[in-house]
Amino acid sequence: MKIKTILAPFLLLAALSASGQPKVIAHRGYWDAPGSAQNSLRSLAKADSIGCYASEFDVWMTPDGVIMVNHDPTINKTEIQNTPSQTVLLEKLSNGETIPTLDQYLEAATKMPNMRLVCELKTHDSRQREVAAVSKILELVKKYGLEDRTDYITFSRDGFREFTKKAPKGTAVYYLSGDFVPEQIKHHKGRGIDYSIKTMRKHPEWIKQCHDLGLEVNVWTVNKPEDMAWCIEQGVDYITTNDPEGLQKMISELPEKPTPKKKKKN
Ligand code: MG
Fold first, then answer.
1. How far apart are the C-alpha atoms of 255 and 102, rounded to whole Å?
2. Is the confidence at residue 187, as pLDDT, over 80?
3. 46-100: pLDDT as tens digits
4. Which of 10, 25, 238, 263 matches a 20 to 30 Å C-alpha distance to 48?
5. How far away, in angstroms, is 252 Cα from ligand 1 center?
């Protein structure tokens, strides 16, 4: 590959302003760090320690109504949505922490006042379970006084509609699946789209369409420098990444936009 081709995204970046830059969201917390693990309390604290705008995490509900923080439907072969919470709570993450409950996660977040939370409801076996999970999640977020600092995302259409109906007015709810065009997101009262880099590369026109509709754009999971550069160049609002430090560095190195000179009055 020619060096010009490799450098192209970075050269484009050099022409961009540091203002209006996208905000950095740590995907499943900042887990690629010593002592951390995906969706661990440690990953939440690490994301806060490096000044992430927000930390994303995933949740499942057990049959007895306890919300657990975990990405996969199973932890060490235990299926969370079909196993009583007492049994699930015996399971450990790869860093030795016990699987956190949403209660524990939110309590920890109350001590991190500068960071937002992005809570992803995973797609459960039934609509009823998702409806119940949305109510439980909103109840817990309210209990910890985190309503102003918590956004919601989900691949589930039912979950998306439920959050937009039940969450307090002004709450940001984003849809992940990539099969709603911006007008549909607006129609369902979402805050915006949170689509994969693959989807956004196919539909870059959705970024402007969203902005014209007053919607926001988040892109996941953006780990390659050339994809980060593309997202910045396209003017997305948020980037969700497994490499929050790398992205922060790239954004911090953007040149400052020169301030326009004021016209002298006669
Ligand atoms: Mg997630």
1. 40
2. yes
3. 999 999 999 999 999 999 999 999 999 999 999 999 999 999 999 999 999 999 9
4. 10
5. 26
Instruction: Give distance in angstroms: CA of 145 to centre of ligand 1.
Output: 22
- Distance (Å, whole) CA 227 – CA 39: 24
CA 24 / ligand 1 centre spacing (Å): 15
CA of 120 to the centre of ligand 1 (A): 5
Instruction: Reply yes or no on whether the pLDDT at 3 is more than 60.
Output: no
pLDDT of the residue at 12: 47
State the CB neighbour count (10 A cutoff) for residue 100.
Answer: 25
CA pseudo-torsion sign 195, 51, 19, 116 = positive
In one-letter notation, the amino acid at residue 90 is L
Two structure tokens written together for 139? 């109840």
166 Cα to the center of ligand 1, angstroms:
21
Taking the centre of ligand 1 as the mean of its atom positions, its distance from the CA of residue 228, in whole angstroms, is: 18
How far away, in angstroms, is 266 Cα from ligand 1 center? 57
Q: What is the dihedral of CA 243, 27, 81, 106, to 10 degrees?
A: 120
Q: Strands 54-61, 67-69: parallel, antiparallel or unpaired by DSSP?
A: antiparallel
Tell me the whole-structure pTM to 2 decimals: 0.90
